[in-house]
Design brief:
This protein is α/β, with parallel strands linked by helices and about 425 residues long. Helix 1 packs parallel to helix 12. The chain is built from 12 helices and 19 strands. A hairpin with a 7-residue loop joins strand 3 and strand 4 (about 100).
């Protein structure tokens, strides 16, 4: 185990004086990929006019304390004089064999930083907590909530639960989850509550669960939601379709802009979480459907899904309004809701981006809001979307400072004929 100077491995260091230069380099690379995607399409389609690219809106991160969640491996040691030890460790990029001790993690939220040392001390002092521990996972929120998950390479049970319950001090009221093969033990709760202040939209409340995806940089997430909210203003007569909705992060923030919102997500647990978050924010004009993005393409093209029927959801392709709605049996009541003005598509796909069927679906919408965690696959998808749409807004969100990763946002509207 390497003991880095200052107790901070290279992978965990922050460089405030270099921040702007590092961010500008990432933004320039993203812009070049987006511009190139459109230029490729225009060069092979001379009839298409070159778009007037908007200036990129850049949303910076805090320089330190920006990560709400982090995982650390635990390295156990044994010394005849010092006895048993336990240490947080990380591995440098490109080397997953050499552990580097982490005594200070400046990227972590203040809540996380305040919990790290008391926890590792408790692990060192308690055989039940230390024996064959694998890693520790912190999940914190801007609201001050915290959940710690500890995983083990051995069975755990009542003795572990009791050991956690005996912890005092700053860890006394913290929520814990213990995991080993086939076992999940909860002390306190396995959820945390987050409150995000979305510019112009106001306060949005979210429940996050242990093991589920959540945005790692909550302060940048607030800015991202604010950008998407502003980009979709003046849509009160239209409906929004959202693919890959997760726990309803964007759904809740954007719902006030639209007449109705249909959001889809393939994960059963995420759908339940999204529905809970909609209820806690009193969002009544949105419905969440458990569908893969590819399945929604089939629904949009007319295929029936019993899951939607049971949920009282009717999808009508854009352009088919009152008469068609009646023919399809859509009833305007509390048990059934019809989406017949789907003009805007919000997509926030995984790093792999969209598949061919989803790209084709996107071209059917008047407006596309594409949030991407991988500008390379975004650029690939834009090569197809650029045939029918042009960029109106471009944004860069620095979710991961001091790394090469960058979150991108593009708002596209249909090209004028």
């Amino acid at each position: 185990m390497v003991h880095p100077v200052g107790g901070i491995p290279e992978v965990a260091k922050v460089y405030p004086k270099k921040y702007d230069d590092m961010l500008n380099e990432k933004v320039q690379k993203m812009e070049n990929m987006i511009y190139e995607a459109f230029h490729k399409v225009e060069s092979s389609n001379p009839s298409l006019a070159a778009p007037d690219f908007p200036d990129t809106e850049i949303f910076k991160s805090s320089l330190e304390g920006f990560r709400m969640r982090a995982n650390f491996k635990i390295w156990r040691t044994e010394d005849e004089e010092k006895g048993f030890g336990a240490h947080y460790v990380m591995f440098e990029r490109g080397d997953n064999r050499t552990p580097h001790e982490v005594r200070y993690y400046p990227m972590g939220s203040k809540t996380m930083q305040n919990l790290m040392q008391p926890l590792i001390a408790a692990i060192r002092e308690t055989d039940e907590l230390r024996e064959r521990i694998n890693d520790v996972r912190f999940l914190t929120t801007l609201a001050g909530d915290a959940l710690i998950t500890m995983t083990y390479n051995r069975p755990i049970g009542e003795a572990w639960t009791q050991a956690i319950s005996n912890i005092g001090g700053s860890l006394k009221d913290i929520k814990f989850v213990g995991r080993s093969r086939g076992v999940k033990l909860v002390v306190g709760s396995d959820i945390v509550k987050e409150t995000l202040h979305v510019p112009d939209r106001g306060i949005c409340h979210y429940v996050q669960t242990e093991g589920a995806f959540s945005q790692p940089n909550a302060m940048v997430c607030e800015k991202m939601l604010g950008w998407a909210y502003d980009a979709t203003r003046h849509s009160h007569d239209d409906d929004l379709c959202e693919l890959y909705c997760g726990n309803g992060c964007f759904t809740i923030a954007l719902a006030p802009n639209f007449r109705r919102v249909i959001a889809t997500e393939v994960s059963k647990s995420s759908v339940a979480l999204a529905q809970q978050n909609l209820a806690s924010n009193d969002v009544k004009n949105a419905r969440v459907a458990r569908l893969a993005a590819e399945d929604f393409v089939e629904v949009y093209n007319g295929k029936k899904f019993r899951r939607l029927d049971d949920a009282g959801i009717r999808i009508v392709r854009n352009g088919m309004h009152a008469d068609t709605t009646k023919e399809m049996g859509c009833k305007e009541n509390d048990s059934e809701i019809c989406f017949d003005r789907l003009t805007t598509l919000l997509i926030d796909p995984p790093r792999a981006g969209l598949d061919a069927t989803c790209r084709k679906l996107a071209t059917e919408f008047e407006r596309i809001v594409y949030i991407s965690c991988n500008p390379e696959t975004l650029a690939r998808d834009l090569e197809e979307l650029a045939i029918t749409h042009e960029p109106m807004r471009i944004a860069a969100f620095d979710q991961f400072p001091y790394t090469h990763h960058l979150e991108a946002g593009v708002m596209l509207t249909r090209r004028k004929q």
